[in-house]
Amino acid sequence: MVLKHFNSITAENEMKPESLLAGQTSTGLSYRFSTADAFVDFASTNKIGIRGHTLVWHNQTPDWFFKDSNGQRLSKDALLARLKQYIYDVVGRYKGKVYAWDVVNEAIDENQSDGYRRSTWYEICGPEYIEKAFIWAHEADPNAKLFYNDYNTEISKKREFIYNMVKNLKSKGIPIHGIGMQCHINVNWPSVSEIENSIKLFSSIPGIEIHITELDMSLYNYGSSENYSTPPQDLLQKQAQKYKEIFTMLKKYKNVVKSVTFWGLKDDYSWLRSFYGKNDWPLLFFEDYSAKPAYWAVIEA
């Protein structure tokens, strides 16, 4: 089914630091690559692309990564050295096999005065880790396209922070090639026009392309207490219509929007079910692999 309908795949969790890192050794880092290797081999064998996800994130990175062998927090220089080794090891291992990497994920917090999330990365390194990550990823694989990836890119304040950060990186000659808009949305929010506004702004930065990286559409509003046992037909139709409107809009920007990735194959695989602990139907296929109205709407668009 993947091979019939898609030409690129992303590992939801298997290429994140928590999955790849096995521990520290006297000489550096140790890894467990078997699952990621199998994933990459599947793509290579079947001649489909891979987006690498993700190198630097405040979540799903082991706590010990930020500490020395005595459990003390690393210095800035020591953490950056460890990050460099990690990026060289991971990106280098899959050099030529991954066409794009989400290098830095979710580093923006629009509620901070400077826009940067107060993660452990930031607390130790300040924003410098972002620049360094892109530089080292490019050194490890000069042909891979490198992305900054984030959610809620449709919120105007967050959109502006992302725009300014990426524009600044680009102006300094940092090798960043695109912005990943996750697009975890629902049937009522955001409007298609707000998604379009973000695409317009981001693509105004010279040399920046856009990937829609984690698209899904919940049937629930954010914070909803509803929990449907079966999907309401009116909401499935509403979902389909919105997917159609989104893809109709995206086609207008085909020169800058180069990739769209759905965050899962079928509804019971969706992270939304485990994250919120209730049923949801955000993707293109039902649990039994049958195509939903959303699938046909995307095809029609």
UniProtKB/TrEMBL annotation:
- Name of the top EC class for this enzyme: hydrolase
Q: Which UniProt keywords apply?
A: Carbohydrate metabolism, Glycosidase, Hydrolase, Polysaccharide degradation
Tell me, which GO biological process terms does this entry list? polysaccharide catabolic process
**Key word Hydrolase present in the record?**
yes
A Pfam family this chain is assigned to: Glyco_hydro_10
Q: Which Gene3D superfamilies match?
A: Glycosidases
Q: Which residues form the active site?
A: 214
Question: Which reactions does this protein catalyse?
Answer: Endohydrolysis of (1->4)-beta-D-xylosidic linkages in xylans
Could you cite one Gene Ontology molecular function of this protein?
endo-1,4-beta-xylanase activity
What EC number(s) does its UniProt record assign?
3.2.1.8
Q: Where is the GH10 domain?
A: 1-301
PROSITE patterns (UniProt xref) = GH10_1, GH10_2
Keyword Hydrolase in record: yes
Q: Which InterPro entries match?
A: GH, GH10, GH10_AS, GH10_dom
- Give the record's family classification: Belongs to the glycosyl hydrolase 10 (cellulase F) family.
- Name the record gives this protein: Beta-xylanase
Species of the source: Anaerocellum danielii
